[in-house]
Amino acid sequence: MNFRKQLKKIIIGAACFTVLATGIGALQTPSAHAATVSASATSVQKANAVISAAKQLKGKVKYKFGVNNPSKLWFDCSSFTKYVFAKQGVNLKWGSQAQSKQGSYVAKSNLKAGDLVFFSVSKPGRVNHVGIYIGNGQFIHNTIGSNFNGVLISKLSSYSKRYITARRVL
């Protein structure tokens, strides 16, 4: 019985410590808290601007494999993401594999608008396509199909077997 009482005290003490430790974050100085909120708002604003820029290019961009020609609006998938993110001051490398190593990993269940999503569209298991998650289970990407060439909004679920990973760069 004595052992159970000690164990109960330890568990209660650990729970109190956890509550106290997480509460310390709430005791940040107002300026530190404001900086955190401001950085978050800036990320959301940048994501919205990236998505808006990508949507504005629908019907104007041509997909060309291995091409990065902003003056003619000819892009492959990764030069397209590089182009629209650059408009918000975010420097992405050219190439879907290179972009898949930038920023930080994001679980599919934690995607936010503005995250880069990566797929395998030719070689199984190998990143070779990138798009921008826009929310509500959709992403925007520059692609080519039998009846399509350019910027397209697609359902993430339509690419579920091809999905590989996601990265947050904002």
From TrEMBL:
Residues 1-34 form the signal peptide. It comes from the Bacteria. Residues 44-170 form the NlpC/P60 domain. GO terms for molecular function: cysteine-type peptidase activity. Keywords: Hydrolase, Protease, Signal, Thiol protease. GO terms for biological process: proteolysis. SUPFAM superfamilies: Cysteine proteinases (SSF54001). Pfam families: NLPC_P60. PROSITE patterns: NLPC_P60. Belongs to the peptidase C40 family. This is Cell wall-associated NlpC family hydrolase.
